[in-house]
Structure formats: structure tokens, C-alpha cells
Amino acid sequence: MTQLQQTYPDPLSVNEVPIQQHFNKGEVTESSTPREPNLRPRMKSDRPSKETDEIKDPAVRIQDLSVWYGSKQAVGNVSLDIARNQITALIGPSGCGKSTLLRCINRMNELISGVRIEGQIEIDGEPLYIDGVDPVEVRRVIGMVFQRPNPFAKSIYDNVAFGARINGYQGDMDELVRQSLEQAALWDEVKDDLKGSGLALSGGQQQRLCIARAIAVQPEVILMDEPCSALDPIATQRIEDLMQELATSYTIVIVTHNMQQAARVSNRTAFMLAQEDLVGRLVEYGQTEQLFTSPSNKRTEDYITGRFG
Amino acid sequence: MSTTAVVNPGRPQRFGHRRSQQFTERVIAAVLFGCAAVTVLTTVGIVVILFSEGLSFFREIHPVDFLTGTRWTPASGNFGVLPLILGTLMIAVGASFISIPVGTLSAIFLAEYASPKVRSIIKPILEVLAGIPTIVYGFFALTFITPLLRDSWLPDVGIFNALSAMIVVGIMTVPMVSSISDDSLRAVPESLREAAYGVGATKFEVITRVTFPSALSGIVASYILAISRAVGETMAVTVAAGATPHLTLNPLESVQTMTAYIVQVTQGEAPHGTIEFRTIFAIAMTLFAMTMIMNLLSARIVSKFRERYE
Amino acid sequence: MSSPEQPTKRITSSQFRVRLRARHLTGTLFVALAMIGTTIGVVLLAVLLFEVARDGVRFLSLDFLNSFPSRKPELAGFKSALWGSIWLITFTALWAFPLGVGAAIYLEEYASKNRVTSLIQINVSNLASVPSIVFGLLGLQLFVRGTVGIGPDFGGFGRSVLAGSLTLALLILPVVIVAAQEAIKAVPSSTREASYGLGATRWQTIQHHVLPQALPGIMTGTILAIARAIGETAPLIVLGAFTFVAFTPSGVLDSFTAMPIQIYSWTSRPQADFQDLAASGILVLLFVLLTMNTIAVFLRHRFGHLTKN
Ligand SMILES: Nc1ncnc2c1ncn2[C@@H]1O[C@H](COP(=O)(O)OP(=O)(O)OP(=O)(O)O)[C@@H](O)[C@H]1O
Ligand SMILES: [Mg+2]
Hints:
The structure holds three protein chains of three kinds.
Chain A: H1 2-7, H2 11-14, H3 21-24, H4 28-32, H5 36-39, E1 60-69, E2 72-82, E3 87-91, H6 98-105, E4 115-123, E5 126-127, H7 135-141, E6 142-145, H8 156-166, H9 173-183, H10 187-190, H11 203-216, E7 221-225, H12 233-246, E8 251-255, H13 259-265, E9 268-274, E10 280-287, H14 288-293, H15 298-304
Parallel strand pairs in A: 3-8, 3-9, 6-7, 7-8
Antiparallel strand pairs in A: 1-2, 1-4, 4-5, 9-10
Chain B: H1 2-7, H2 19-60, H3 63-68, E1 72-73, E2 78-79, H4 82-113, H5 116-131, H6 134-151, H7 162-187, H8 190-198, H9 203-214, H10 216-232, H11 235-241, H12 258-267, H13 275-309
Antiparallel strand pairs in B: 1-2
Helix pairs in contact in B: 2-13, 4-7, 4-10, 5-7, 6-7, 6-11, 7-10, 7-11, 8-9, 10-13, 11-12, 12-13
Chain C: H1 14-56, H2 62-66, H3 79-110, H4 115-127, H5 132-144, H6 161-185, H7 189-197, H8 202-231, H9 234-239, H10 259-267, H11 272-308
């Protein structure tokens, strides 16, 4: 019993310093002109890093990854180290394999029939693509937030508690639900209606509910596939603020089509591109600031200046 | 038309010449509406006929006596419909013990596990079960299931018994459950399954905790429809369960269902206009009401379900 | 790879793995159960067909198809039943097809979205699940005896092919309507717009463009509905179809028997020989049904692509 609790620790100990005062007001007008993000540097490169830009102790290490759908190759030989407790953005034109790459990180892509994956992905040095690693375990540690909010047709409470329940969470469920909703900056809006349906929320609230649901299983990495593309600017702002908060305790990888968003929220950015052979490859990867101000690759420059894509 | 041509010989009229066409159009629309109205008239016809004959039955036999009486021997003046209703419900419920688990498991297998190829083979096979005429199921019950029961576990079972009727009615309603439930399961958006996988659910957990509950209303509707179908089923139960209106819950005995009684009377020589003949309308009325309630209920559940995802 | 201060990862936790193994085992057992459930249906169908075939081959011959019923099993045949069914079904189709297609055209192309239309639509789907024996009583009063309600008889058509086919037509009408509606719905609206654009009236559009495209679908649905009518027994018994008929009909006002009636009559005889005769009759009936289904499937495949694009 105690062992199990250890395996799946109390949520309170995970995240000691949630700075959430400005979320807790829960007023939309407030959050549309937030104070907090303005206090932060626009581009987060606050972590000391060497000029060589080498990532020490990466949370996720993608090595020479190639993916095929049937006989068609979608991703070719991508190698990428993802820094711990930072936000990494994946950008690139439509169809370049961003979602594919992202879904490989928690082995979601195997759910599609006819997918073949070569290469290796490691989390904390442990390989994911070897015999004996159960994808269910992987997804438990690497959570995911999808493009369209997809709450279950259950109550808000049950949406959040779902993952914890199936994974045998032993602690105080009410507390976990509260904690997760608070972390997702949704608590104040829903605390009086936890029994209400998750589907009755607005799009932005639903997406935050999905984030709470992902947090509740206490992953180490959270993957987000265009989490704001179905949301209006105000809701987008809230999710972006939220990502900044979460980055203090989680490693976040986000796919986005919105270059400003990548510039605003991420520490590092990876630019992918599918050229004539339609195979998506990594073109450039580095500190967000550097990639956006002085890209080393011509195609990166063309893309971020809007010349194609 | 010809008059306009005379009045204005040089120039053909631009719009007026369409008038006869408009008339044709209107006649056609009326005829087509008539076709659609036939369906409404059919329902009206059923209701009028059942009620007029049924009510004249109830003028002689009090509805309370009819609905609460425990003996059904019209020849000697006992018109208690309970034995028939009990026989009907016993077979319908018994059948659902087969159709619901088998149909649900098949639906889950087809919707969630089977490859497209396996699915394209199994699904039509199950649907054949629904296309086989019910008299064939009656034959199967009488000549195969009942002898099989007798030779194996239940030597005391009668030639006519409720059990084999339950079994065959269960078999024939499997496709009803499986195909409607399969549709409901497949209508659950893929994004919900992904969401569950994303927090570390196994396939079994995704199905039992997310997919199945999301499809539940459609699945329940299929159960109701299957039971409604079993209540109205005639030939298989007539052949297999016999024509003895017992007030019993013993499935090894012969029972008579409402439908089987109607068959018995219409086959016999009960003269029209007698009270015995009118009984069948009273019973058909009861049957019609029972199935109609179940059908409306399931249609309601299904449309609720649609609202949720569309 | 992992840095020293990193604690043991949850992904390697043995406790979680033990639990997970149990979860997977449950899943495997469930797949097995689902497969068994699915197999039951398939096996039962096989057993049923095998049993009928085994009993039925004995009397199956050309003589069987060419003789009238008899008290002597060796001499008994299916001729009157087979021809009775052919007469019955021909006229059933003759009534149900135009009525059903007409109603479907009305509902799809003419009806506006109002209460009357939705009433008709609900009524159609309700009628489809009214027990067939109830239709038998309707036919008995309306067509056989010509009694509407308590009022005086207007004569009726007696226990004739006409009365039987009208009853069966009403019975399958909802099925034909729904199938035809589906087929008409599948015709793209661009077809209609093109036709209206050329100045065609509504009926001209339907006649020249919608119906030809929808026809294969309508035919498929109608054939399947008629196949259902061929196997219907209960309504015909209620109408008072004779079980012992030693002639074939030569007009719509002649009395008749039909395949399922004859099968029922043989089934209810105690002697084993008659049971075998019933099985032979079933084989003929199933063969007819199989043929009709094959034609329907063929139509769907042969012409399916025309309506899709
Ligand atoms: N399920 C699938 N089956 C077959 N091919 C697929 C599938 N999913 C993606 N692909 C192909 O793989 C390539 C990469 O797709 P992916 O969805 O990863 O791109 P993306 O960068 O996420 O694009 P977008 O920005 O539009 O979301 C595309 O060419 C796409 O057609
Ligand atoms: Mg994508």
C-alpha cells in the first residue's frame, strides 16, 4: 500500500509553489489583460545555458526517429533532445510530421494501424521502443492534450479523476481533483459544479479541463498538439499563461502553427519541414530567441518571416 | 394556352406557358403526399380496428377482470389475460438473456477489436440471422433444440416448452442488439478514445469506461427494441412453446403467448362476431400498446443520444 | 543517462507493473469473451443451416417442386406454396414499390420541415416495428372482410391473393420507404442544382436526375424488404390463408397458400416424415431468399459507384 502510494505520490508534494493568484480571480476581463506574463521576459531563456546550446540531462531524447504510414514515410531521421522543465515548441508547415513526431513520444501513434516506427526515444535515459515497455505505462508518464478539447461525457470531477482511478491512485481523490483543477486554472470557475457535465463548459474551459485531466495522473512530460487552435484569443491567453506555470514542474512539448505563440511561450523551438520527398525532417533546433532572431538556416528564416507555409 | 397564342401571335409568351406544367407539378406533389399519407392511414386503420373490436369486447368483459384474471379459458368464459402476458414476458425476458450478452459482446468485438476484414465477414453473417424467417426458427426449436435439451440435461422438458422458444427468439434477436450497438459504439468520436489512452488507459479500460458508457443510450435502445421484437414474435413461439395458457414461470412447461393465442383463434373456426373472436382484438390491442411504448421509448433514447454528438 | 539527483522513475516502478499486468490480463480475458460471444452467433447459424439441410435433402427433388400437398409424405410437394408465394410477392411488390418510392420522394424532395412531416417520419419508423401479426388483423378486417371498425362490411376480397398482397405491402412499406429515402439522400444536391439551373421543374429534376441515380439503392432496399415479406407467416395465417391448397392461383381473387404457411402446416404435424418435408420446404424458401439477397448485394456493388461520386 505504502509502496504504491510512493509510486504515485501525493499531488501536494509535486508542486509546491503554484503561483496562481491571478488565475484564481477567474474573471475573463482580468485575464485578457494579465499582469503576470508582462512581468516575465517575453522570451524565456532565463536558464543558464552554454553557448554551444547543449542540453544537459534531457527529459526526452529522440534519436534518429523515422515513421511510416503504410509505405509512405512521414518523418525522417529526427534527432532531438528536449530539456527538462522547459517548453519546447514544434513548428513547421502543415503535413510536415509535427503531430506524428509528438504522438510518437507517448507511443500514441501505434493506435493507428499500419504505422511503422524506427529509431529510439528515451525518457530519462530509459528507452521507450524496446520489448517489454508497455505503451500504457509510457502514456501514464507522458500525458497529452489534444487539438480539439475532448472531455468525456462525464462530470467535471470524473473527467479529472478518470486517469487517477484507472491507474490505481490511492490518495485523497477530492484533493487530487482540486489540486489538478487549480493547477489548470479552472478551479474557481467550476468548484461549485463539479458534478456538472464536462461537455457543458466553454471551449476554453474544456481545454483547461483536459489539461487538468492530463495533470491528474502526474505525468512528467505533457505533450500538447495545437492546444489553442480551437480557442478564441482570450482562452488562448489563459492556456499560454497556464503553460508557463506548468513548466515549473513539467516538461512541455507543444505543436503550434502560431509563430507568435511559439515565440511567446517556448524556451526552445524546433522547425520541421517536409521537402520534395514529403518526408518531414528537422531543419533547425535551438533557443527560441536565437531561432527567431537569427536563424542559421535559410528555410527557417523564410518560414518564420512568412515567406511560405 | 391556345388563346394566348391567338392574342399575341408573334411573340411567344415568356412565362405563361408554364401554367399547365405547374398544374402537373401540383398534381404530382399531391399524389406523392398521398403515398406518404398511406403510412399514417395504416396506423389509423390499426388503431381504429383494434379499438372498435377491442372496446366491444370490453363492454362484455370488464378491463380489470381482463387484466387481472389468472385463468384464460375463453371457451368456458374465463378471460384473465395474465397467463398470456406472463407467457409472453417470460419468453421475451428469457430471450434477452441470450440476445443481450451475445449481441453486446459481438458489437464490442466488431466495433473495437475486429480488423476491417474480419468485420466485413462477421457482420453480414450475423445479419443473416435476422433475415431467416421466424417459422424456420420455430422448426429449429421443435426439431433440434427441444430434442437436444431432452437428450442432455433436461429429460423432463415437454415437446412444447418455453425454454426452447426463449433460446430461438434469443438467437434471432442477436443481430438487432449487435448491429444497433455496433453503430452506437462506432459513433463515439475517436478523440474520446485517444483522450483515455492519453492518460494511460488500457484498451479494456478505454472500452469499458469511455466508449461503452458514451454509447450506452444507443445500446440500451437496442435492448429495448430486441425485447419489443421478442414480445411481438409469433411463429417461433407458436411452434415451440405450444398453446397451453398456463400461469407459470417454469420454462420447461408449455406456455401460450399473446401472439400464439391470436394464431390459434384465427386458425380455428371461431365465428366472427362472437366474444371468443373479439378476444383477439383485445389481446392485439394490449400487444400493440406494449410494443408501441417500447418502440417510442427506444426511439427517444436514440434521438437523445444523437443530440449529444451531432 | 539520467542525472544522479533524479529519483526512481515511476515508469520503472515494479508495483505499478504488477497492477498493470493484472489490468492487461483482464483485457485479454475480455477479448476472449467477446470473441466467444461473436462466435456463438456464427456457430448457431451454421448449426441451424446444417440441421435444416440434413433433414431437408431427403424429399428435395424436382417432384417436390412439382407436386401438390398430399396426406402421403412421399407424394407431397411444394408446388401450390411456391406458386402462391410468387403470386403474392409479385403483387406485394407492385403495391409497395410505387407507394414506398412515392412516399420517400415526398419526404425527401417535397415535404417542408414541419410537424406534419416529422409526424409522418416518426410514424414510418414506428410502423416498422409493429408486430407483423397486428398487420394480419388489419388485413383481415380491411381487405379480407371489408370491415372498417364496427361499420357494415363492404364485402372485401376474401382470403385472396389480393388481400394477402395488400396486407404484406402495408407491412413492408415502412422498410421500402426508409431504404428509398436513404438512396435519395445519397444523390448529391449539386445534381439537383444543375438541373434546376437549366430550368427544369421539380418533378423533371426528380424524374430525370434524382430517381435514375437513386434507383439501384431503391431497388436494393426494395428487394430486401420483399425478401422479408416472403418469409412472413403470421399475418397470412391471421388472414386465414389455407394450409391445404391443391391448386395454383390463376387470378388475384383466388385463394392461395404460401411457402411459410405450408412449412408451418408440415411442422405442426407430429409425424417425422412431415417434419422432413418442412425442412425441404425451408431449403427452397432459404434458396429463394439467398437468391434475392445476392441480387440486392450485386445491385449495390454494380451500381454503387454511380451514386457515390
Ligand atoms: N493516420 C494517418 N494515416 C496516413 N497518413 C497519415 C496519418 N496521419 C498523418 N499522415 C501523414 O503523415 C504526414 C504528417 O502528418 P502530421 O499529421 O504529422 O502533420 P502535421 O505536421 O501535424 O500537420 P498539421 O500541422 O496539419 O497538423 C502527412 O503527410 C499526413 O498525410
Ligand atoms: Mg497536426
